[in-house]
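Sample 3 of the quickstart, ligand flavin-adenine dinucleotide:
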Amino acid sequence: MRLACPFCGLRDEGEFAYEGPVMDWPALDARPAKWVDAVYLRDQPRGETRELWRHHLGCGSLLEVVRNNVTHEVASVGHADPAETRALKVRVR
Amino acid sequence: MQPYSALSVIWNGLTGQRDWSRQWRDREPKSAYDVIVVGGGGHGLATAYYLAKNHGIRRVAVLERGLIGQGNAGRNTTIVRSNYMLPGNREFYEHTLKLWEGLSHDLNYNLMFSQRGHMALHFDPAGRDAFARRYNTLRMTGSDGRWLRRDEVRARAPYLNWSPDARFPIEGAFVQERAGTARHDALVWGLARAADARGVQIVQNCEVTGFIREAGEIVGVETSRGEIRAPKVALCVAGSTGPLAARAGLKKLPLETHKLQAFVTEPLKPIVHTVVSSAQEGLFYLSQSDKGGLVFGGEIDGHPSYAQRGGPRIYSEVMEKAVALMPWISRVRILRQWAGVMDMSMDGAPFISTTRVPGLYFNAGWNYGGFKATPASGWCYAHTIAKDEPHELNAAFSLDRFARGAMLDEEASGPTPRLH
Ligand SMILES: Cc1cc2nc3c(=O)[nH]c(=O)nc-3n(C[C@H](O)[C@H](O)[C@H](O)COP(=O)(O)OP(=O)(O)OC[C@H]3O[C@@H](n4cnc5c(N)ncnc54)[C@H](O)[C@@H]3O)c2cc1C
Ligand SMILES: [Zn+2]
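Result:
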């Protein structure tokens, strides 16, 4: 599997670390039960999933990857934080 | 069931091997049972066997999507050990090792269980101290474990890299002498045969696709071969748990599904006489099968996956570790490589549990280590299903332990399944 880092280009999966699913975290003052669920329980998708990966042996960016976990086809890779994408576009230009 | 004995082997040897009967029967599904076990891996078959043997429940079906033993039961590296440290884990794994010690006789089937010892190598004082704590705990709680100095490890394993410029110079090892390996196919078939003899019906090519509910309770399953009813439905599908449990109403689970690879070399003369493991720069474990192949593996691929195949990053990592420990292995050919889909739990410990859905029971979360657990998993799960409450040996493996702050994180790596 290879991922196209928006900053570094197409790289082998060995340069990236999986950081967990893309999910909404509860508010900091939410009930403890909400936090238990967020930290310990996961949806169980089989097929296309939205995940966070870090390009830890590259630029270090946190990436949002849409990937099929049965076929390993990668539909898209972008920065997890849209502000980062905008900032990089300015710099690259 | 035709009992196996030395006499029957000799008799059939003399009479042209014509009198062996079938070991177990592949049944047509009936419309109803007392208990449906979903999944014909080691755990499902063991559960059915102990339901019949220990609890006298005879109308039990094991529904298997494909053929029994074609999941992780037939894909693992067959290491059996009980060197766990946390209360909850250690009693359970010690119980499984004790069951293994009598299982060939109990099943009247040669499981080729070989207590050849498991050596966990250490490479520095910190590694030694961490292991010393673990193995001292084992000794104080009724299991076995011992420290071997460098020269003692060398005497047992001269094939490891003892050269002064080894990448990871070995300092010593901790050994559990009662640990070892067993024959995975024999476990599956031995359990199937013994369960069948006690009236359990094994139904292959029967995929569970949904659940029948009445008044909020699960009262049966929908399958590729029609509806089958039972007041108790017990999930036992290892790496396929997530999507199936979601259909039963357990949408979110403390699980992630990853894949784990293993490798086997061409057969060699006997050289590796124990199981050897190393946690230096990531996990590596090795044993030699009775056919002579070196069987070894490393870590999971690190990202959620339902593909039963591994990626090249792990091939090279595992080969690097193998060559660092045993440089001569670089000249041995790899015959096969494969992967299995792993039910990785949020704390690295399993689940054998009742659920909040009446009629539904839950067994999963075996990570890398469910082969050794097979007998005790079936034993405890059967108890949980029959009595509607856990045995004290699996009380710690409940599904709701996270909400109570009672996680069992043996590796202390937090709620990050890829690190367990
Ligand atoms: C490469 C590798 C190495 C391993 N090494 C070790 C080791 O050295 N020691 C150790 O202790 N453990 C090891 N394990 C882990 C161990 O193999 C598993 O934890 C254990 O086999 C899981 O239990 P099982 O045998 O019941 O699973 P499985 O054999 O996977 O059984 C699950 C069954 O459920 C069936 N199923 C799935 N969905 C459905 C459905 N909808 N309807 C009907 N049936 C269904 C599947 O076809 C399958 O047969 C290893 C695993 C792998 C992959
Ligand atoms: Zn990058």
